[in-house]
């Protein structure tokens, strides 16, 4: 067997013999759309964890505690980069080779968590990073390597636009599509591609940021 | 290459009513992304001048253009006739709440750092645009793919 089904999903074609848009009732004769497990778009039980992390961030900034700021910035940035790269370079290709029902089940369990994890990591990294740079004097225009810091700001700015303008909307749209009585697999495949590719691109941009940050830290 | 061994189930792919409606929708996402890019560029421009007398002309112009684009986008969205409005407003409400919290944390940082008044006003206006533009993108990108009677 080849991955014809995956190709159909990717290119928005119907399989041979199937009229575009034709939609028998789910489960009718075993030929309906694959069952979508019940799931919450926003994992409510994880919200207290997000709240604790964000309160910790505010406290770290409020107290100007060097260790806390460094921890939030390094831990947040490391996790953000790893997750992006893992998504784009490891998980994306794996998902592309999974069967459609498996992909649907994985997506319903994975994407709601990403909806909370990614914005939290971004807030941790950028909020603590700005304050840390200010605290140690790297933000000052008189800092000898100020140009490098500005370069990292430009990269982070590009990442923010990609993440907020493409990645997050795709994430949310997939979840709402899966909540429909009859989800459109072609659309989910297309949106998931946007999500995975943009995650990969931001991951690579993150590597550029890490190169700059480690350069600055070693000066 | 051996990969997925099943076939695409009928009714799980191909164009549907939502796909057919896309051609009638205005270019909300490109405009919203441009708005965000202008706000971020303005923010980077100001942050790059930290610690010295900042030139505010460029970021102010960027902010003004971004504000106009956001306004145009709001009008374009409001003029859409066939749209899943209940879904749009449901997502918009929650997203506004979430991004108000994020913008609030950033505003707190600027106030905590004793940011000069003119800069603070500029940053605050940028944060307002950010906190409205991103929820607009999220709610639009969800509602555009929903059936008109979706709640």
Describe what you observe in this structure.
The complex is a heterodimer of chains A (219) and B (151). Chain A has helices spanning 4-11, 47-63, 66-96, 100-136, 146-178, 185-217. Chain A has 219 residues and is an all-alpha fold. Chain A has one domain (40-217). In chain A, helix 1 (4-11) crosses helix 6, helix 4 runs antiparallel to helix 5 (146-178) and helix 5 runs antiparallel to helix 6 (185-217). Chain B has 151 residues and is mainly alpha-helical. The longest helix of chain B has 28 residues, at 85-112. Chain B is elongated. The N and C termini of chain B lie far apart (42 Å). The model of chain B is unreliable at 1-7 (pLDDT under 50).
* Element-by-element helix/strand order of chain A: HHHHHH
Distance between the termini of chain B: 42 Å
Summing up helix and strand content along with how strands pair, one would put the structural category of chain B as mainly alpha
Kindly give the count of domains of chain A.
1
Domains of chain B (count): 1
**Total helical elements of chain B:** 5
Rg of chain A, Cα atoms, Å: 21 Å
Radius of gyration of chain B: 20 Å
Helix share, percent of chain A: over 70%
The total beta strand count of chain B reads: 0
Chain-averaged pLDDT of chain B: 86
Order of helix and strand elements from N to C terminus of chain B: HHHHH
What is the CA–CA distance across the termini of chain A? 56 Å
Q: Unreliable segments of chain B (pLDDT under 50, ≥5 consecutive)? A: 1-7
The outline of chain B comes out as elongated
């Amino acid at each position: 067997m080849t991955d014809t089904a995956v190709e159909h999903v990717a290119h928005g074609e119907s399989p041979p013999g199937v009229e575009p848009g034709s939609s028998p009732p789910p489960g009718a004769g075993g030929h309906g759309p694959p069952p979508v497990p019940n799931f919450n778009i926003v994992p409510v039980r994880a919200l207290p964890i997000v709240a604790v992390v964000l309160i910790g961030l505010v406290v770290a900034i409020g107290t100007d505690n060097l260790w806390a700021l460094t921890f939030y910035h390094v831990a947040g940035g490391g996790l953000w980069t790893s997750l992006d790269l893992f998504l784009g370079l490891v998980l994306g290709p794996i998902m592309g080779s999974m069967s459609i029902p498996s992909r649907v089940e994985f997506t319903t369990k994975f994407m709601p968590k990403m909806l909370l994890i990614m914005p939290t990591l971004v807030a941790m990294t950028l909020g603590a990073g700005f304050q840390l740079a200010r605290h140690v004097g790297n933000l000052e225009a008189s800092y000898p390597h100020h140009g490098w810091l500005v370069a990292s700001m430009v990269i982070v700015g590009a990442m923010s636009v990609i993440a907020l303008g493409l990645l997050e909307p795709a994430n949310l749209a997939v979840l709402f599509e899966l909540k429909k009585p009859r989800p459109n697999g072609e659309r989910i495949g297309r949106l998931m591609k946007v999500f995975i590719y943009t995650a990969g691109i931001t991951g690579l941009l993150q590597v550029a940021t890490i190169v700059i940050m480690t350069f600055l830290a070693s000066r | 290459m051996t990969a997925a061994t099943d076939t695409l189930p009928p009714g799980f792919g191909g164009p549907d009513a939502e796909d057919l409606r896309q051609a009638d929708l205005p270019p909300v996402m490109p405009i919203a992304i441009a708005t965000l890019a202008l706000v971020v560029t303005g923010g980077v421009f100001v942050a790059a001048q930290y610690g010295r007398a900042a030139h505010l002309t460029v970021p102010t112009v960027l902010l003004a253009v971004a504000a106009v684009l956001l306004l145009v986008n709001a009008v374009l969205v409001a003029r859409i006739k066939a749209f899943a409005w209940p879904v749009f407003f449901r997502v918009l409400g929650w997203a506004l709440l979430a991004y108000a919290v994020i913008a609030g944390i950033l505003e707190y940082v600027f106030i905590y750092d004793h940011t000069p008044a003119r800069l603070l006003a500029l940053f605050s206006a940028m944060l307002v645009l950010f906190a409205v533009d991103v929820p607009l993108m999220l709610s639009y990108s969800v509602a555009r793919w929903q059936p008109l009677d979706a709640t």
